[in-house]
Amino acid sequence: MKPPVRSVIQSTGLCALLLLLALPGFPQQRVQSPVEGSGFTRLTSCDTLQAFLETLDGRGRCTVRRLAHTSRGRSVSYVLVTSSSRFGEDTSKLRVMLFAQQHGDEPSGKEALTLLLARFAGFELDRLLSRIDLIIVPQMNPDGAELRQRRTADDIDLNRTHLLLTSPETRGLHDLFDTWWPEVTMDIHEYGAYSRAWSDSGFVKSGDVQLGMLTNLNSSGALRSYERDSVFPFISAAMQKSGYSFHEYIVGSPSEYIRYSTTEPNDGRQSFGMLNTLSFIQEGRGGREPGEGLERRARSQSVSIEALLAFCAGHSAEIRSLIARERQALAACRGLPVVLCMDHFPAGREMIIPVRRVSSGTDTLWQVHPLHDRVKPLSTRPLPAAYIIPGELAGIKEILDRNHVQMEIISAPRRVEAVVWMIERVQPDTLEDEWHPRPSLRPEKVARVLHPGDMIVRTDQTRSLFLAVLLEPESMWGLVKYPGFGFLLKGTEYPILRIP
């Protein structure tokens, strides 16, 4: 039986309406994020977030994919956002990657990203997508979030696994980075506003958002200057216009000293920054309780992120050119000095931040003092042409494989001229308030025969500086400080050779 004519007309009309609604220029129904739907009275649970992301898949420029599974089987998802017919199709676009809630007890960054995703799904931010493509991971640590704790369910701090990549969540994130090589990344966190280190000094930090830039001296100096001179002022102006307080990310105690945050390449900012990425860490103001002041916390983070995206869209060609030049230089670093130890020193720069007096509860401004605002090198070594890793050090090979490092596995005996570090003594040192082993070394030229299974890792590749930071025995962030690798400094010879 043929359907009634009226039904055919109604069906045709409905299809036409749906097609019109899918057009970017047609007025769209506003999409609401879960936290908005609750009136900012409830944090978005892992299950609610996954359900929300499922509704976005294929809607308003968004495509949802799986990044990893946690140790408890929960999904970590990411969203590709583009105005092109396919993500990455337009190679002239700048690629930006945003990821939040590596620490499960820092929820406002996740909520900020859901606010942005809702707006992208409703075509409200299409102006940004003409020149940028976006990769968004709203929640890196769903297990920790459900447990209301910083670490994962198996007690891992995700923001200290970006070097060895021992966690499926961070391994998935770095695999995603290697798939698309975004030029800009932002790692989104919260800072503890009510720490004893501050309250005992009479006040607490009250800034809505702090932004941390690259500080590791092995990242490009041109990128560090560009972040400080161009990007930071732009975001600061946008935050001020929106009525939110904003300043550079600082750590430490007023009763001792205050510095910029860590230079450690084992976190989500410096790890990508050492690949010459325009990389940031954002720290929103945390609450005494997870949901305290949630709307302001989420919206202030969202405004800062959107300001970064606006800057990127307005300067996309400039940023792409800068990143391409600096990344190309990474494969030509042999013989150049690599900074293996560094620390923070005062340089005279002034910083004034908003604080709240503990005694009266009144808001005021405080000039940060003493501010250790300059990172200086303490030891450097020239980057060799290659490293030789004995085949029995399989654990190191696994780390290099996870980081997509190129290497040659020796298949037949081969004689090489190399340099071995002779270990004279090892003594403890403290840098950035952490313990580090500091060996005294003497170089010695040797002729060695390589055997099948030994590895030659050349440094004429993008991860050249990463290799030096990981493998050099003097490196303050190198393998020797991590559990399971202390044996590298136990003998008289450091087992990893250098080809000068």
Provide a brief overview of the structure.
With 500 residues, the chain is an alpha+beta fold. The chain contains 13 helices and 22 strands.
Layout of helices and strands, plus pairs?
Blueprint: H1 5-22, H2 34-37, H3 46-56, E1 62-69, E2 75-81, E3 94-100, H4 108-121, E4 132-137, H5 142-147, H6 168-180, E5 184-191, H7 196-199, E6 203-205, E7 209-212, H8 221-242, E8 246-248, E9 250-252, E10 258-260, H9 270-273, E11 278-285, H10 294-314, H11 316-330, E12 337-345, E13 352-357, E14 363-367, E15 371-372, E16 374-382, E17 386-389, H12 394-402, E18 408-409, E19 414-431, E20 434-450, E21 455-458, H13 464-471, E22 497-499
Parallel strand pairs: 3-4, 3-5, 5-11, 7-8, 10-15
Antiparallel strand pairs: 1-2, 2-4, 6-13, 7-11, 9-10, 12-16, 13-14, 17-21, 17-22, 18-21, 19-20
